[in-house]
Amino acid sequence: MHTTTQAFQTTAPDQLTIRDPRTGDVVGTFASARPEDVARAVAAARAAQPAWSATPPAERGRLLRAAAAALGEQAAELAEINARETGRPVEEARAGVAAGVATLEQYAELGPVHRGHSLRGNTLAADYTAAEPRGVAVLLTPWNDPVAVACGLMGAALVTGNTVVHKPSERCPRVGERLGEVLASAFPPDVLQTLTGGADVGSLLTQQPSVDVFAHVGSSDSGARIAQAAVLTGAHVIRENGGNDPLVVDEDVDPEWAAEQAAVGAFSNSGQICTSVERIYVHRAVAEPFCDALAAQARTRNRVGIAPLVDTRLRETVHRHVSEALRLGARALEGGTVPDGPGAFYPATVLLDCTDSMEVMAEETFGPVAPVRVVDSFGEGLQLAAAGRYGLAATVLTGSIAHAQQAIAALPVGTVKVNDVFGGAPGGSAQPRGASGQGFGYGPELLDEFTRVKVVHMAAAPRPGTGSSADGLAE
Questions:
Q1: pLDDT digits (tens, 9 = 90+) for 376-386
Q2: 9, 65, 322, 398 — which has fewest CB within 10 A?
Q3: Catalytic residue among 151, 172, 274, 291
Q4: What burial letters (b/e) apply to 64-82, b meaning 16+ CB within 10 Å?
């Protein structure tokens, strides 16, 4: 996700001031953790971890279900805070809280049945693997879906016996702070702690030698710095970072339907989704009706009113990408201008005649922008989609099973979606590649990320006086 701009104003060394992206009005001033707070939180998590690890898995699951229930009771409050801090519509923010509740409940069920594997060895011996918690987990989470993402990481970390220090994005400190208050009440002291602050607090956390695992959802640059710091501390790293997700539109699909899919992928949450559609390759045979329909989708959203970006600094980045593309020869079918008035609004924008050398195609824009390049064949579109340094996700719209299979094999991404821009089964997982990160971010596999495996070989002791192993058979 895009976090290259700081979405807060520092008013004092230990304070953050947050502004409503819809109006520019001050939402509030919040405390930022100091170095001694960071050290104290990690030390407390370390001290609490042995007892939490020794808690039976079923009991950890029960407490996680209690935390989910407590979160559900505070859904309206958290959604309202989220809307004020990030500009996300209340209904969407409420859906994010509901997703967080469901994720906690999912891990409450999966955690107690998370187990190792038996190994084939000597018939008279036992060989198996046992999963153990890594220890202290630091979770660094984003602002674009702050409750759902945090709950996924917290649920998997806690239910497997890790203690957690959570730092939410500096753009939504009160959401993170309140989420921590609600969930921590279900657990023993210091099992779940929350620290608010900016990049300086995150940097201090990565320098703590007693942290065993870092989980980060955010920009690729920040993720790379965390991975570099972990080389020195030996911590395990899980990263879901930036993406530049392509959409390939084949010649045999309905262009109106394809445009609807593209609009959902590019404009939902004002383009502020890690797996948003960031670049589109459409077959020349359907390009004209597809582009007309996509522009109509953008106009409808602009007429109804699209939610603001998280802040004006992000808007500046989005508009810089769009302006550069227009200067280099792209055409705006819809949008592309900064509106008058307060807040951080930016219109749903459709750009034609884009090339892959433009920033809007090569980098993560993280705004409601749909840049389009026309291609002469599905193979050309697939080749272009596979290029680049990111490897988060990609979507292909096609009626051809052969083309779908080619895309699945060729696209170097963690998730390939065929004929559905968003969606997927509950419990699905993702393993990003390249600059987009490393490790599983969701699903049952996330439990594996928060544990390490111990291999056990157990043989029988020799019988007294025989020097041979007891075989347990009657003579």
A1: 999 999 999 99
A2: 9
A3: 274
A4: bbbbbebbbebbeebbebb
